[in-house]
Amino acid sequence: MTPKWTDAQIKLIREQVDAEMSQFAAKMTEVQTMIVSTSDGRPLTAFFSTSGDKNRIGAMISSLLAVCETASRELVAGRCLSAIVSAENANVVVLRVGGTNSQFVLAVAFDAKLMLGTALRMTHDFGDLVARIVATPF
């Protein structure tokens, strides 16, 4: 069952995730964009190395993951753990924070020059960090 948070709890989660996101992006200069949104596409927090519309991107990332989850089921491949978009200038890794039933989605776009395995590992590590923040009792 999905937890129901108060506005104050969501604000605290947002502040903690935003602080961690800023530190992560400062360490990983290859990060172009990061967003944590709800599974229905509402953005919690985001980082952009340039400009971006977090509402629009949150909705698209949520839809992308939903399509991947449906495709995984149709292909009898099991649950979708993550999705990767490989583009000319970036690799985007998308996953549910804390597992397949989570209410939160994380997407990180890395410079395409960064090895894909590194991008995948770093995204999963950051997702685990966000999952711990969300799991912290209030």
Automatic annotation (TrEMBL):
Top-level division of the source organism's lineage: Bacteria
Domain Roadblock/LAMTOR2: 18-110
Family annotation (InterPro entries): Roadblock/LAMTOR2_dom (IPR004942)
Record-given protein name: Roadblock/LC7 domain-containing protein
Annotated source species: Pseudolysobacter antarcticus
